[in-house]
Request: fold
Amino acid sequence: MKISREDVLKVAALANLELSDAEVDTYRGHLDDILTYIDKLNEVDTAGVEPLTQVVAASTDDSALREDVIVRADVITEVLQGAPDPEAPYFRVPRVIEK
Amino acid sequence: MSASATWTIPEVRAALDARKISARELVKEFYGRIEQRNAELNIFLALSPERAYAQADRIDAAIAAGDALPSLAGVPVAVKDVISTRGIPTTCGSRILEGYRPPYDATAVTRLEHAGAIVLGKTNCDEFAMGSSNENSAYGPVRNPVAPDHVPGGSSGGSAAAVAANLAVAALGTDTGGSVRQPGSFCGVTALNPSYGRVSRYGLIAYASSLDRIGTFAHSARDIATLMSVIAGRDARDSTSASVPVPDYAAGLERSLHGLRIGIPDDYFGEGIDPEVRKKIEAGIALLEKLGCRRVSIRMPNTEYAIAAYYIIATAEASSNLARYDGVRYGPRVPGATLIEMYQKTRGRGFGAEVKRRIVLGTYVLSAGYYDAYYLKGQKVRTLIARDFREAFEKVDAIVTPTSPVPAFRLGERTANPLQMYLADIYTVTGSLAGVPGISVPSGKTSSGLPVGLQIYGPAFGEDRVLHMAHAFERAGGQEL
Reply:
């Protein structure tokens, strides 16, 4: 067994994810299967191999950076319409700073 | 006009030019079809009639005025629900974005509409594009129009099914590990996943940023060529969009395939492939040979490691991208005594099972002590898989494979074992990791009438080649093999 219930709970806490007891058990089993499968990668010799983080070659594009210009978006009303607890022009959240 | 007739892009144009139908009548026709079939097939999550009719009226006014029409004038299209549409609900198939209406349009949508296309609505998909069957949608699975007790594939199942059921002429989907090509194969339509960087992702709600791409579904490679000439190309709003020039894809379709070398990777025809799929793919390769292609046996030795590398990289990126859904700015909130508790409850209840599974896995592979063993190792193996493709393209012009090792399966048949579901992505995740374009084109049907898809990979930014090969394949009767 590669992964314990405690591992799942620790990771869920890192990800701000509430899981039921049943979910913890189910995911523990699934993750164990998946991580065991992923161990296949240990068969591959990657000594001296660079990691590939993205595939767009630098040579294909030289204009990734643009001038940082302020443009008025004017979407506050639209954006706040979708918020669960808006107080224009803010999003309200439970208290985070104690008095 | 039959209630289920297929329309292609040139047919729409011909009918408008001949004044056989107006754009408004055509939109009305498609909404009528959707009304008839959506309860059964569950393809559309939201419709946008106001916007569609307004666009149709603009096209009709242009026709009345005798103006030159843009290339997609009057073409009804469907858009996957992970692509932002201003003011139209965009949920990503998730409860956590229920009721969300983006304040802006994705660039791909803007470009389609600028070229005259008419957006009918948003299509169902696996939640946040995570899945291969559409069964992970919070709004219920899509049914495959070809065989309604079967899945349409995923994650862009709704978009593939919309085209297959003739509820749209074309559709946008997204492909991270096969999510355009595999549903295209399952539903029997043509589906292109273009090169990474070819189509702007501005407004695409991110799943795995180093892999996500916007792709297209249509009845033919010709229609996809027309769509691609509209949506491809550099966009200042997406720093990963490439400034590689966009050819007129349709202009290159009629070239001969004579002398093209097609690589058949031995490594792709091992265990796990359905015998009927194998038979149809062999027949498809034979057809390409008949059209003048030369078959070359190649090796892609790192293929068997692709699934493991993919699920590390994709879930790691997903765990980061999905951190933003926290009940503050959009979607429903589940109250909690503290901010953290509110986050945990909102995310715990807002996300479905597969998304939570991938967030947990992705967080695990990125966590302290495991980063090198999993995430970094996965990225190094990704380098080797990309190298397999690069070396193959030194010997061949295109690589031909099955799109999926299996045809569409029954709803519920494969939900119990997530790893088994992941393993079936083998032929598509390789190209996803390498960033190369891949097209799935119908290549016959199984004895029970389920479509089989043949995949053609080209080198990076070689969309013109895979489109012209797929076009010749279609013209030579590939679908009827």
